[in-house]
Design brief:
The chain contains 6 helices and 6 strands. The chain is an alpha/beta fold.
């Protein structure tokens, strides 16, 4: 917002000029469809009642569910991914309808009905991912909830928590991970978790 010297700016004026996803309007004419909107059963592995992503015939889900992007020589690709999607279904809908389809969306494991929201976002051309929450640095002050992965736990528990997050039976190309409190101190556990992701 441009402020002229000695001009009085009201709170209302400031709020009206703050960027907000709620102000987005649909841009249906700019939708670039994805090749796969729904989950492909070939890329699903059933383990203990969970439907987990898997590599099939040397083909990887992140490639199959993604969008091929051609980049001119000597140029770099820049990925824009918005995290914590799905917690507010209405705001999520506004987001995937109002943003260009080459912006990716990563969904919170706490999102209700995340699978159907992911499919809808993909109908509008957005690549989709899942948030992986490592135990917060301020865990003594804020509760990151039951889906937060504590890397100080056993390897089995870490893998179990990871699988709980990615077994949503929806097409995801990978995960978006935050820095956690233990990720530097417990490198072996982090490596095991990354190995599990690499296999999937």
């Amino acid at each position: 917002i441009e402020v002229v010297k000695n001009e009085r700016v009201t709170l209302q004026t400031l709020l009206e000029n703050v960027p907000s996803l709620k102000k987005l309007t649909p841009i249906d004419n700019e939708i670039i469809p994805l090749r796969l909107v729904n989950i492909n059963p070939d890329f699903v592995e059933n383990i203990d009642g969970q439907k987990l992503p898997k590599i099939y015939d040397h083909r990887k889900p992140w490639v199959e569910y993604g969008r091929k992007v051609n980049t001119a020589p000597n140029f770099y690709k820049v990925a824009i991914v918005i995290k914590k999607m799905g917690l507010d279904a209405n705001l999520t809908s506004i987001t995937y309808k109002g943003l260009p389809s080459n912006i990716s969306l990563s969904f919170s494991p706490y999102a209700k009905d995340a699978a159907s929201q992911i499919v809808e976002a993909r109908r509008y051309g957005h690549e989709t991912y899942m948030d992986v929450i490592l135990l917060s640095k301020d865990f003594s002050k804020s509760d990151t909830g039951p889906y937060a992965i504590d890397l100080s736990k056993s390897e089995e528990e870490v893998i179990k928590n990871l699988r709980n997050i990615i077994s949503i039976n929806a097409p995801i190309g990978g995960v978006v991970m935050n820095r956690g409190v233990y990720d530097l101190e417990v490198k072996d556990q982090l490596a095991k978790m990354l190995d599990e992701l690499k296999l999937r």
